[in-house]
Amino acid sequence: MTHERPMRVVVCGTRFGQVYLSALHRAAPGRYRLAGILARGSARSAALAERYGVPLYGKVDELPDDIDAACVVVSSAVGGGRGAELAKELLGRGIHVLQEHPVHATEVADCLRVARRSGAQYLVNTFYPHLEPVRRFTAAARRLLELRTPVFVDAMCAVQVSFDLLDILAGIFDGLRPWSLSPVERRPGRPLVSVDGQVAGVPLTLRVENRMQAGDDSSSLFLHRVTIGTDAGNLMLANTHGPVLWSPVLSMPSDATGQFLPDASEVAERWPHGLGVTGAPVGPAETPTWATALDDVWGDGVLTALDLLCERAAAGADPLRGGQRHLTVARAWTELTETLGYPEVAHPEGGDPLSVADLTGPASSPFRP
After folding, report:
1. CATH (domain of 82)
2. Alpha carbons within 13 A on the beta-carbon side of 53
3. Domain count, the chain
């Protein structure tokens, strides 16, 4: 989006807000300008304000009148915070708001109504759908569904990123409906809870790591893995940060006697299009390092979400109409969390991180003493 001047943005909250601060700091000149931090005044917030050379504000009333947008990276009621109240205060001043997920459906609806009254834009940032590998997967999945009918969806996620998993699926299918979940039987001690259902009318198998380490939500076994299955093959997002893999189904026509391994002279006749590869990456096969993911991939995702907010502002879009997808996702997420029940406490095993090199050495036994 082109502005007469850079859009002036404040970041509210400095824990995960550090990702937003870094992204805005390195945004291209003329695009965005980090105009301040709104926080409670902790040592961390003061240090970050000094690091980025911006004012530290304690209340919405203290913000100057030239603030265009705010990134609210503060827990909402579902996390025991007042992020939604803060968002409504900002919207009431006509400031566009990008709010980090998860947000309860009631809070989303309230914020959308305030945004419409004040002429501002409100957008829930589900974050991970804006990351480049996920956008690449979503684009390929949408193209696949133009060519073939989906047969199944198989998905995995950690419970704390289940909100955005649902939004990834909503982006692929243009919504979640028809949507349903079957009841699950809680079996303590199992790290994954399996839920059957349907998304956009397609059979869904969802496995959720419904456990968390007390005081640390970054110790999950994984973030997201999603497979869209069709009769032509399966498209998989192997990890939130890639790769995206296409695995075509095996098609081996037999000859009149039932033989499916042809002589060399018969290959062109029996497989005019070739058997092809057993699988191939869609885009890069490599994945980023965690340092690159946290700084570059996540930062670019924040700016992508902000671009969408700005596009809606420039178009004068109706916030209520534009927010229907996230209202649907929020309601489905509430249903999912109620189905899963309260997360168990995880006790991750300590030790140094493992690399691929650690897995390619000689193995002595499948079990450790």
Report:
1. 3.40.50.720
2. 2
3. 2
